[in-house]
Amino acid sequence: MEAAIAITIGILFGSGVWLVLRPRTFQVIIGLLLMSYAVNLFIFVMGRLWIDQAPLTLAPGTPDPSVHADPLSQALVLTAIVIGFATTALYLVMMLGARGLTGSDHVDAEEEDEQ
Amino acid sequence: MLLPVLLLLPFVCSVIAACMPADARNREVWLAGTACFVSLLGVASLFPQISAGEVMRYELAWMPAYGLDFVLRVDGLAWLFMVLVLGIGMLVVLYAHYYMSPEDPVPRFFSFLLAFMGAMLGIVMSGNLIQLAVFWELTSITSFLLIGYWHHRADARRGARMAFTVTASGGLCLFAGVIILGRIVGSYDLDVVIAAGEQVRAHTLYFPALLLIVLGALTKSAQFPFHFWLPHAMAAPTPVSSYLHSATMVKAGVFLLMRLWPVLSGTEEWRWIVAGAGVCTLLIGSFAAIFQHDIKGLLAYSTISHLGLITVLLGIGTPLAMVAAIFHTINHATFKASLFMAAGIIDHESGSRDMRILRGLGRHMPITATLAIVASAAMAGVPLLNGFLSKEMFFAETLLVGGDTDWWMSGAALAMGIFSVTYSLRFISIFFGKPQVDLPRVPHEPPRWMRFPVELLVLLCLVVGVLPALSIDQILHNAVYSVLGEQMPSYDLAVWHGLNIPLVMSIAALLGGVLFYRLLRRRFNPDLREHVPLIHRFSGAQGYENVMSALSRSADFVLELFNTVRLQPQIFCILLAMVAVIATLGLPSSRHLADPFANLDPLFALLLAIGCICAVAAAWQAKYHRLAALALLGGTGVVVSVVFLWLSAPDLALTQLMVETVTTVLLLLGLRWLPPRKTPKELAIEVPRRVWLRRSRDLALAVMSGLLLAGITYAILLRPSADTIGDFFLLRALSEGGGTNAVNVLLVDFRGFDTLGEITVLAAVGLTIYALLRRFRPAPESLVQPEQQTDPLDPAIHQAPSRQARTGYLMVAGIYLRLLLPFMLLFAVYYFMRGHNLPGGGFVAGLIFAVAIILQYMLAGAVWVEAHLRVRPFRWLGLGLILACATGLGAWIFGYPFLTSHTAHLHLPLLGEVHVPSAFFFDLGVFSVVVGSTMLILIALAHQSIRSHRQPGKSADVEASASMQESS
Q1: In whole angstroms, how far apart are CA B375 and each of B299, B307, B338, B369, B387?
Q2: Deepest of B199, B694, B949, B958, by most Cβ within 10 A of its Cβ?
Q3: A67 interfaces chain B, CB cutoff of 8 Å
């Protein structure tokens, strides 16, 4: 279970890194999104893996923390997801603006001699 | 209480002046003038106490932990400088009213001028060395702003930059110096430091402290070798030159030397550095002044030499020299300020400041000419004027210094006297002779009140010159006493002391000056010289430029060596560093690898496999098949969402799913503006070897980073969880937060302040995107209609999107999606309401709400939706932020800290008892901001395609609707 999750995080992150290193802006945006999935999952699993133990203290009486998932990492990731959307949107608009201004979708805004 | 008010008043007025409209010239002058006048009255009311030898103090705890207090301290010396700053300030304000032209933006001018006045008062009133250094730098900044006031002129920009670089670097030296001084004494309080003179002079750190502080003073007072900035600062408007660069700011340096005189003076080092710099300055300044062509240039060099004179007196260090220094400071301020104003009048009324073409101005402006001649006589040291008195005291002191054998100081003083008579003659020569005819303007007398400040100052020169004992004696006594205390010398301010050597020197200087001037005119006419003879090669300004350009070149060199403008290598380095950091954190050892896939559900494994395959495929396709990559990315996102759900995080799963939807729509909207890309195979080109190499390098890094992150995750997951603060939130979610959903309670209650920050960021991003898109210019080739929309066989191309949804090929989807809208909105409300206790909450609900609206846009187009529905993203944004803040502020009313939550228990008819936590309203704010910013971003982007159609010709939608109307 742990190994499977770890491998998934690794693959998502590796794909993201590969794309972030590419020269085209669209590749970079997809790469950033893949990296953010990986990092969100990474932060999330820092609260360890829990199955069917959502952090909802519905049972009457004093809640028992040992039967609930860690709410802290979940709350952190929740805000990260929303902010991630905002930065993606900002990046997209920058990318479109740069393309309109420079006529190129290369990250350096100018074509290299080949590619 | 008077002291802080005096200090604050100019700053407050500065802010008010800045807020006035650009044409409020009279109001600005009234404001600034009244501020000066009221302050001046306040300062005058202190005179009896100051004369009684009192030192007034006002203290305010500033940083008590470091033993620093904010101290305002007024003694005789500070009082004298306050009168100078405020009095001349008031005259300058009056003068500037007539000087500034209607095109100049006066609010900026008066605002800076008042801010400078406040900073200068801060320096002289500071009772704490650190505080003094802060105000010191503040005067450098305001001086920079005032010199650069006409920032469209290159010389103003250059002069401002030069003055700022020199004086602000000096200020930093001063700062370092006072810190050392404070460490030696153990306190930064001025009174304590002044009392510790013996201790300081005996300390090993005395010399560095002295050197740094003196560097500060010499740069500020334009002393050799830093004197070059002052002539360049003459690019400022003349009121500024008159105020800052002759009467007040340049006196800050000598003020500092006077202030710290009891502590630092009396040693060989002090004498050599201070008096040495002073002698060089007074000779260079007075000599260079003779050969200037610009009146203001002449006055600037003369200011330099007079400041040098004061510095020499301070360097000599006898009590009588201190008397002469303070006296000359006052005298110089009066006659030089009036001369600068007269120069400004000449410039203003004749259109030129060039002494080579100005002639016979006495005929056109007799009163101004008389005033200027009297003031320059004071500058030259003619008897019965104030300059004579202090210059005679200076001659007497130079005689004492050398004793009977060493006459070099007296020689330098005499030379300076001769030169100053010469340049004064050169200056007044513009009033005599045959009137010049082809001046830019026909010269005439200035307005009555423009001349008034000059008249008043010249009157002061005369009164002090004729009746020194009656007019200035008490003020001078107060100032000298506050510096010297018990060492107070006895001196006699009188015009006639009998025939003695100083008087002979004065007469010799006058006669010598006249002779030298005649000689120059006949043999060596200054009007025809381009450069100052002898010393023009040692140009400080050139040295400054050389240093600056060398700095700039070396910065370029370093940038070239270590930097690249290419993003890819930068990102590569960053990621490489990150990988290196992860690698040092430690990886799972072999004992962890016993059974890594125990208790793995096959379904879960399949899910993860799908996610991974999607991610790798997206990475593979992102270059040439963007739509496919986007779909694959969505696949990964959905898998991540299900993983969250599987691993007990329903809130995350919901949020991820909604964000995934919105992100996909967002990227779809962006795809249209990207250039087409063909594979190398289609283009029949060979990918070069270099590119393959780089790709393999990147691939290696990607694989490495993936492996490392997987390894570190695995290593962490196998360790038992440490005690986290998560338990705290679980235990208190219901009892103190009033909700069972710990994640939501954490977001809107325990960590509400974080969430407030987050929604603020969200709102800011939304607004930024909106602002950026307003200026958006798409690439020309993306403006044409896409291929798919111009196929003549497709009937849909002639239909507006709204028609496609009503009767066209989107009819089924249209009916279905419109039916869905109310249900989706209901869903959003449902998720919002239950958020505190069950998965849901403001974020999720806001996203669902936004998606419901966006679906309508995607179906029928922006035009149709906006005709039927008024979406106002700005209102959602604003209301949400206001609601969230108001909920937080509400806690203040009940005396709790910001964002403290409270649960109200209400009994409502029909519904029974209802628990309404205040966090509910906060969450409502979050909901509203999420709806607002999401819609703002997506709609702004969606509108681009309508706009771009409009640009080349008529809008496609308009055309379509027109044809629709024709057919119906």
Answers
A1: 12, 17, 7, 10, 9
A2: B949
A3: no
Q: Which residues of B touch A32 (CB under 8 A)?
A: none
Closest A-chain CA to B566: A108
**Alpha-carbon dihedral angle through residues B507, B512, B515, B516, given to the nearest 10 degrees:** -150
What pLDDT digit, counting tens, does each position of B923-949 carry?
Answer: 999 999 999 999 999 989 888 877 755
Q: Identify the bridge partners of residue B68 per DSSP, sorted by sequence position.
A: B63
Q: Does residue B953 surpass a pLDDT of 70? A: no
In our burial notation (b when 16+ CB lie closer than 10 A, e otherwise), range B468-482 reads beebbeebbbbbbbb
Q: Is the pLDDT of residue B552 over 90?
A: yes
What does the pLDDT look like over B442-485, one tens digit per residue? 888 888 889 999 999 999 999 998 888 888 888 899 999 998 88
Q: Is 60 exceeded by the pLDDT of residue B963? A: no
Q: Give the up-direction half-sphere exposure of residue B193: CA atoms within 13 A in the CB hemisphere.
A: 25
Instruction: Tell me, yes or no, if B670 comes closer than 8 A to chain A by beta carbon.
Output: yes
pTM, entire model: 0.70
**Ordered DSSP codes for B598-613:** TT--HHHHHHHHHHHH
Say how far apart CA B58 and CA B116 lie, in whole Å. 22
Query: In this prediction, what percent of chain B has a pLDDT beyond 70?
Result: 96
Name the DSSP class of B780. Answer: G
The partner residue sitting opposite B758, judged by closest CB among A1, A10, A83, is A83
Rounded CA separation B148/B109 (Å):
10
Interchain contact A98–B (C-beta under 8 A)? no
Cα dihedral B154, B155, B156, B161 sign: positive
- Find the DSSP H helices in chain A: 2-20, 25-45, 71-102
The yes-or-no verdict on residue A30 having pLDDT over 90 is yes
Averaged over B7-23, what is the pLDDT?
Answer: 91
> Are A78 and B666 an interchain contact pair (Cβ–Cβ within 8 Å)?
no
Whether residue A55 is preceded by a cis peptide bond, meaning omega within 30 degrees of 0, is: no
Q: Is the pLDDT of residue B962 over 60?
A: no
Angle, helices A71-102 vs B918-950, to 10°: value is 20
Judge whether A105 and A25 are in contact, CB under 8 Å: yes
Does any CB of chain B come closer than 8 Å to the CB of residue A60? no
Q: Is B717 helix (H, G, I), strand (E, B) or coil?
A: helix
Contact residues, chain A, for B571 at CB < 8 Å: 20-21
* Structure tokens given for B685: 């080109």
What is the reported pLDDT for B592? 58
Q: Is B712 helix (H, G, I), strand (E, B) or coil?
A: helix
pLDDT surpassing 60 at residue B496: yes
- Provide CB contacts within 8 A for A107, sequence distance 6+: A23, A24, A25, A28, B567, B568
**Which pLDDT band holds residue B587 (cuts at 50, 70, 90)?**
low
Residue B537 has pLDDT above 80, yes or no: no
Q: Which amino acid makes up residue B244?
A: L
Query: Which residues in chain B have their CB less than 8 angstroms from residue A47's CB?
Result: 721, 724, 726
- What is the nearest CA distance from B600 to chain A, expressed in angstroms? 5
pLDDT of residue B677: 84
> Would you call B728 exposed, middle or buried from its count of C-beta atoms within 10 A (0-12, 13-18, 19+)?
middle
Contact B837, B650 (CB under 8 A): no
Q: Is A10 on the interface with B (CB under 8 A)?
A: yes
Q: Which of A30, A50, A83 sits opposite B622 (nearest CB)?
A: A30
What is the pLDDT averaged over residues B612-625? 93
Q: How close does chain B come to A25, measured CA to CA in Å?
A: 9
The reply to whether A30 touches chain B by the CB within 8 Å rule is yes
Q: Which two tokens stand for residue B385?
A: 């004027």
The complex's ipTM works out to: 0.96
Q: How far apart are CA B667 and CA B921, in angstroms?
A: 32
